User: Fold 2-succinylbenzoate--CoA ligase from Peribacillus cavernae.
Amino acid sequence: MTAERLPNWLRKRAELSPDRVAVEFDNRSYTFDELNKMAEETARKLASKGIRYGDICAVLMRNHIDSVVMLHALFYLGVKIVMLNNRLTPNELTWQIIDSQSEWFISEEHFSKKLKQIDKGLSGVKILKKEEIRLFTGMDEARIQEEFILQETATIMYTSGTSGNPKGVIQTFGNHWWSAMGSVLNLGLTEEDCWFCGVPIFHISGLSIFMRNVIYGMKVILVEKFDETEVNAMIQQKGVTIISVVTAMLNRVLLDLGNNSYPDSFRCMLLGGGPAPRHLLDECKSKGIPVYQTYGMTETSSQIVTLAPEYSMTKIGSAGKPLFPSQLKIEVEGRKAMPDEPGEIVVSGPNVTMGYLNREEETEKAIKNGWLYTGDIGYLDSEGFLYVMDRRSDLFISGGENVYPAEIESIISQHPAVFEAGVTSTDDEKWGQVPVAFVVVHEDTETDEKELISYCKQHLAAYKVPGQIIFCSSLPRNSSNKLLRRELKKSLGARK
Amino acid sequence: MTAERLPNWLRKRAELSPDRVAVEFDNRSYTFDELNKMAEETARKLASKGIRYGDICAVLMRNHIDSVVMLHALFYLGVKIVMLNNRLTPNELTWQIIDSQSEWFISEEHFSKKLKQIDKGLSGVKILKKEEIRLFTGMDEARIQEEFILQETATIMYTSGTSGNPKGVIQTFGNHWWSAMGSVLNLGLTEEDCWFCGVPIFHISGLSIFMRNVIYGMKVILVEKFDETEVNAMIQQKGVTIISVVTAMLNRVLLDLGNNSYPDSFRCMLLGGGPAPRHLLDECKSKGIPVYQTYGMTETSSQIVTLAPEYSMTKIGSAGKPLFPSQLKIEVEGRKAMPDEPGEIVVSGPNVTMGYLNREEETEKAIKNGWLYTGDIGYLDSEGFLYVMDRRSDLFISGGENVYPAEIESIISQHPAVFEAGVTSTDDEKWGQVPVAFVVVHEDTETDEKELISYCKQHLAAYKVPGQIIFCSSLPRNSSNKLLRRELKKSLGARK
Assistant:
């Protein structure tokens, strides 16, 4: 038999270990049995409104037990879920809902201000709030998926790129499954394991924790917002054994930790979201904190390269080797790079996306013969350990969020006073990196930094809004007129 | 991307954790890096003799590091391996080699007596001994499989049935992979894990340990023969955390253990091979030994139902619930049984075989719509826990080996003095069960117990040879002339 289908994950888990705690949120525990019943009830309520197998539903929700239940309820019905980043502006959200051809949009009162604006931009999309859904009486019978078909789409997450427009990354049940398998074969699994989720569940970093949750039968502690003091208390007193963080979070956690330490039961600080500064890793090493650097992205359904435990101290700075089901190579001008020679990071494996939703051309550009061209730059040392040098030049990371300069440039350029714009990033103590825009204005027009920043705020999520606007007479371009963002960065350095 | 292929398992493991100990045998340790190099060298030597991708090769070897290396070497070349049970007679072995259409047969000097007889029965099959292979100079280049294709056949294991003739069960790489995944999601995995293999590697119980070995990166201690004193020493002093046993082995281990106990690090006594007597489980419970009853067979590539840790003491006697990727139902006359109602155990999952080698009809009879009809009898309690009542009526277990009465009957009936024979089993302190034959002789002919037993010894593996022959004038048959083995069993009871 081929592995095309598996039993419905949460249902199976509720059958195998009903009384284990599945999720802890807001000082309440939910067992797998309870979670399953809540998901089933919600699924029936959704079905009573006409949500059906094969529908596409966009979801805008906070980190909350209700969101976890909603996701499972939608999986139960066989609905493809578009995971919306709740930091986005109403315009950005509307765009993604329309682009994904969602028939349904589920959100919550908390976002009522955003929802009013989104509502205007949508037509034909049925909008439901969780507070309303709760009041539905539900159907006696809803068609619950007994099995998940691994080739079918589970979730869609938008990510931007060189084009400026975000693209929906397709994540199948199989992608999520294999990602969980790759992780468990590296990190292991014990009955005591408890994964702390302080990263957003609309990101793959958070969502993948909830996939492992039901597949492994492992407890997850979920919080709405990441708070370093709470995190340290959880690790020290509540038995958290694994936590996913990005560099900015790790910084805050260490600062809060001070001279205190963690119990031996804490076994993994999974550090993703871009290359970590060496001093941070050294500090963790000196404090005996088991940091596992990892490399992954939306397209690989979370980790694809992670440092194995035995190398966490000797190969410091490396993201490790590709997880068991996955493969990796470095390419330079179409050939395989030599050891220590930097080039493009190219990956493959059953956790890698089949492509971008309704974007055939961009899919073909990114995925060739089953290999995903990440655009990121790195090298393998002589022992095969990956060192990520830089996320691709058109991307930087601010507070754990990917920021795509092209997307910001495209917004700024729409302002009537602007002729063209170029965006790069500058170091920031708190966020790691923040955007900076270089702007050329039309002749005979006037604008200023304040006006442009306020314009950006209307159209871009806060983490994408430039911290600074620099007016200039032209942008650096190469002979084929391609914007040279590295030159912007250089000139930024020279100005300091 | 679909999960059709994975990186070559041992190679990948040698890349990820080269310096971890892979196997300990005969007081020597072999790391994954060493094991990979040994397998590669052997693969090159085999390739130099012409063994190629797609070939079928029967293997008759003892539990030994060389056998582990040989298996990997054959996987490296993409050769399908027929795993021969080394307790079989030359006739039985010859039959399986021919039936599987093996082009190659690899064995070792240890079996030279058997080999001489097998040699006579084979023509066109190329025979190699490991001692010869060692002397080959090898090729510089052999085509090593970089990837394993999950749908491809990895191994073939013979198992008998009602027909009397053994059938080759096809086990794909995918079957083995998913079996390992089902196990890890139930038992967990830690860096300290060490699985003791005292069961034969030609059985799925032993082979599956070596699949987990490379997939998990987990140490395995291999011994040639199961010895209870050695087992207890290994658990008490050498850090064994998991061991696979059958009832007869557990009996011996407990006897040897006496009033001693196991360290806390020992976390799983995986007990397969048929329903265990309650008193044995109670004794383990009182000694704090973590017994995990499990149900599985060659067709499910090892465990398919195992009791989860939290129920090991409360659901004593149950084999548990189907592992995460698998499903189970009980059928009575084509309908689903009620809770507590006994019926046929029917299973499905990606670890279940696609069928029997070159036996289309028997495959169709056993596997319907992806569900394997095991012929075994059991029931589910109201909470869904499986209780195996009896392996199918045409099968019993002697010292962990499946014994098929039809096969023994077929041999005895070939004796010139025998008109017909019926076989059942009787309880035995050491082996659990041993065969007993009821024989009707032709009129005007003469034979005796000694002669028939000696005849059986020539044609049947020792564990299949009846311990007793009972002569009678007729066999109990139903109206459609089907032999009623249960009646034989009854009359055996009455005779005592």
Summary: The mean pLDDT of chain B is 91. Chain B has three domains: 27-149, 175-390, 396-495. Chain B touches chain A through 44 residues (CB under 8 Å). Chain B has 15 helices and 28 strands.
